Amino acid sequence: MNDVTTTGAPTREPSLRNRMAMYSPNRLQIGLFGANCSSGRAVTKVAERWTGSWPDNLKLARMADAAGIEFLLPIGRWKGYGGETDYQGATLETMTWASGLLASTRRITVFGTVHAPLFNPIIAAKEMVTADHIGEGRFGLNIVVGWNEGEFEMFGVKQREHEQRYDYAQEWLDVIKMIWSDKEDFDFSGKYLHMKAIRGKPKPWGGTRPVIMNAGASPTGQAFAVRNCDAFFMQASRTSLEETARRVVNARNAAKGHGRELGVYTVGVITCKPTRKEAEEYYHHCIVEHADWSAVDGILALKNISPATVPMQEFLTQRSQYAQGMGGLPIVGDPDGVAQQLVDLSKAGLTGIAVSLVNYADELPFFCDEVLPRLERAGVREQPG
Ligand SMILES: Cc1cc2nc3c(=O)[nH]c(=O)nc-3n(C[C@H](O)[C@H](O)[C@H](O)COP(=O)(O)O)c2cc1C
């Protein structure tokens, strides 16, 4: 009998299609974003803010796995943002974090977030294969090129001009995909990488490769994603579902132009309480009254957003959006309201959403008990088997 894997999960066919579906039948996939970082994605001083510790991550991952949540997406962050809370100052490295969680869960896909310019591709390919074997086909790659100058300075690595970052990432990913293929002892000679007699064994689990995502926002970044990736994370419009639907169609069509299928996802920040009033009050409490504004202003400065560079009204809007989940779509309400907003996003064509919560482990049970059944009744998800 070979109908369970070493992690106790049912056997699954690790085809790329199944990996892209995160081994799930659900029309709207749900992931948790940012739990490997202290404070997660809420720039708040409230005492219950997320620790990002290993025990809390492990507890959260097991809970999410049991509830049928599809994926965990970490943030590759090397240096915190300071402020009163040193926002995201303590972070668990994503590849080792993913390996530990994959060994401790049964179904959930766990991503590692890799800064291409900071990781030698041979080492990265092998680390990812190792994680993929531990998870028996459940590892995913979030490839990022980096934007935070201070982090690169800490490594002593010079950040390239924006366009060249993606040029470099293209070569990096080409090498990784070749190592994961049946190629043996091959040379690679590109504009940036010159490598001889490359060899990498074992191959990823089950004769295919990990699912690959990217969240480029610039035209160059988006073009990179649709050309190379299975999943693309984009910003949903805050004001118009039609606009979100248009962005989804555009991304899918661009991928089709390269003969590729593309899952299209967005990022949300959920505040769900028994009543809408409670949800709005908690949101206000965490993200307005107790926001860590010194950290927010540090983040904005890194992104060159200040009253000197953008109009005052725009600056204030950005300031408030960064406090709340670094610009993710705010989804605030009672279980009916939160479920409805998620159904609407599914109707707009999104494959899924990666969400964050102020304290993931404290808030997830209520979300799973109240919102997931509503999504099942609305036909966008099924009960976990
Ligand atoms: C879902 C999501 C995850 C991301 N993860 C990271 C990350 O872990 N580390 C990082 O430096 N940038 C991360 N980014 C930033 C993007 O990779 C990208 O650099 C950013 O959206 C700017 O786009 P551009 O590179 O095309 O200018 C993430 C963005 C999103 C939306």
Distance between the termini: 20 Å
Structural class comes to alpha/beta
Give a short account of the largest sheet: 8 strands, parallel, barrel
* β-sheet strand percentage: 5-15%
Strand order of the largest sheet: 1-2-3-4-7-8-9-11
Helix tally equals 13
How much helix is in the residues? 40-55%
Shape, per Cα inertia axes: globular
Number of strands: 11
Low-confidence stretches: none
Radius of gyration based on Cα positions: 20 Å
Short description:
This protein has 385 residues and is of the alpha/beta class. The chain is built from 13 helices and eleven strands. An eight-stranded parallel barrel has the order 1-2-3-4-7-8-9-11, surrounded by eight helices. Strands 5-6 form a two-stranded antiparallel sheet.
Notes on the structure:
The chain is α/β, with parallel strands linked by helices. It is built from 13 helices and 11 strands. The chain has helices at 16-20, 54-67, 94-103, 121-134, 149-155, 162-180, 219-228, 241-256, 276-289, 293-302, 312-323, 335-347, 360-377, and strands at 29-33, 71-73, 109-115, 139-144, 186-189, 194-198, 211-214, 231-233, 263-272, 329-333, 352-356. The strands form 2 sheets. It has an 8-stranded parallel barrel with strand order 1-2-3-4-7-8-9-11, surrounded by 8 helices. It has a two-stranded antiparallel sheet with strand order 5-6. Strand 8 (231-233), helix 8 and strand 9 form a beta-alpha-beta unit. Bound molecules: flavin mononucleotide. Flavin mononucleotide binds at residues 75-76, 113, 142, 144-148, 215-218, 221, 233, 267, 354.
